[in-house]
TrEMBL record, chain A:
Protein name: Unannotated protein
HAMAP family referenced in this protein's UniProt entry, alphabetically: PurS
Gene Ontology BP term (one): purine nucleotide biosynthetic process
Gene3D superfamilies in alphabetical order: Phosphoribosylformylglycinamidine synthase subunit PurS
From TrEMBL, chain B:
PANTHER family: PHOSPHORIBOSYLFORMYLGLYCINAMIDINE SYNTHASE SUBUNIT PURQ (PTHR47552:SF1)
Name under which the protein is recorded: Unannotated protein
PROSITE patterns: GATASE_TYPE_1
Alphabetical list of InterPro entries matching this protein: Class_I_gatase-like (IPR029062), PRibForGlyAmidine_synth_PurQ (IPR010075)
Transmembrane stretches, start-end: none
GO BP annotation list: 'de novo' IMP biosynthetic process
KW Hydrolase (keyword) present: yes
Keyword presence, Transmembrane: no
HAMAP family attached to this UniProt entry: PurQ
Molecular function as annotated in GO: ATP binding; hydrolase activity; phosphoribosylformylglycinamidine synthase activity
The entry's keywords: ATP-binding, Cytoplasm, Glutamine amidotransferase, Hydrolase, Ligase, Nucleotide-binding, Purine biosynthesis
Length: 79, 224
């Protein structure tokens, strides 16, 4: 089974990467963009998806500072 | 006193830590893949970029074989010091409260900082002269200390906040200017600045030596 884990900084925690991206956009002529948050996307193949919750909270994310979301995908190989 | 300094792939300050610990006793390097702590009296988790800091700083080092032994050693009351990346590893391992986030100034920053010794009566600060600041270099990209508000209140109330930056020098944006914390039992301590780089007058300050002298006092004092 193919799965994705989305990891993002918890709400309310300053995200310097997001701030840097947000500040770069006006220089490129893009306006009206705010509240940019930069997270992480982990894609993986897993035999037993019931382990994903434990994998995510033990290693992929630090639950103290990050939220994560698990997304199960089809068995079709990634493009 | 015998101190063991961990060496991970990507560590870069382990030799300076070994030299600094060597000023107060014997100091040996411990390879990340070994579980044997070689009967050391204290452990230092050094600075650097263990396992490339992939995922998050310290996230992978925490699962190394040597860290299993360090967790056990700390649980038995052994003295453990984490410096910079070592602080990040100890937080990820749950040996210290909180986490270290990317610097608020969005830059890897290297500068001399002055630290207030908030708790002068610990296994890591007992040799610090009362009321004096420590001048020690800091160099990191992810040093913003974070814990939720109730945790911060508890840490302050319980005397676990050991070192603070001068407010105007808190470049990384650490909450409540926290530069170093210890665990509730008092035997595990982590800080972002580098005391091992401030033990020789040649490099401008010997204030870092106080940390190693304090650990020496704690270990030798426990023997008496």
């Amino acid at each position: 089974m193919r799965a994705r884990v989305l990891v993002r900084p918890k709400r309310g925690i300053l995200d310097p990467q997001g701030v840097a991206v947000e500040r770069a956009l006006p220089a490129l002529g893009f306006k009206g963009v705010s509240d940019v948050r930069v997270g992480r996307l982990v894609e993986l193949e897993i035999e037993d998806p019931s382990q994903l919750e434990a994998i995510s909270s033990a290693l992929l994310a630090n639950p103290l500072i990050e939220d994560f979301e698990i997304e199960l995908l089809d068995d079709a190989p990634a493009a | 006193m015998k101190t063991g300094i961990l060496r991970f792939p990507g560590s870069c300050d382990e030799v300076d830590a070994q030299l600094a610990a060597g000023l107060v006793g014997e100091a040996v390097l411990l390879w990340h893949g070994d579980r044997d702590l070689q009967d050391v009296d204290a452990v230092i988790v050094p600075g650097g970029f263990s396992y490339g800091d992939y995922l998050r700083a310290g996230a992978i080092a925490r699962f190394s074989p040597v860290m299993e032994s360090v967790v056990e050693f700390a649980g038995d009351g052994g003295i453990v010091l984490g410096i910079c990346n070592g602080f990040q590893v100890l937080c990820e391992a749950g040996l210290l409260p909180g986490a270290l986030l990317p610097n608020a100034n969005r830059r890897f920053t290297f500068r001399q900082v002055e630290l207030e010794v908030v708790e002068p009566d610990t296994a890591f600060t007992s040799a610090c002269p009362a009321g004096e600041m420590l001048s020690i270099p800091a160099k990191h990209g992810s040093g913003r200390y974070y814990a939720d508000e109730p945790t911060l209140d508890r840490l302050e109330a319980d005397g676990q906040v050991v070192l603070r930056y001068r407010p105007e020098q808190n470049f990384n944006g650490s909450l409540r200017e926290i530069a170093g914390v210890r665990n509730a039992a008092g035997n595990v301590f982590g800080l972002m600045p580098h005391p091992e780089h401030a033990v020789d007058a040649l490099t401008g300050s010997t204030d870092g030596l106080r940390i190693f002298e304090s650990m020496h006092e704690a270990v030798e004092g426990a023997r008496v």
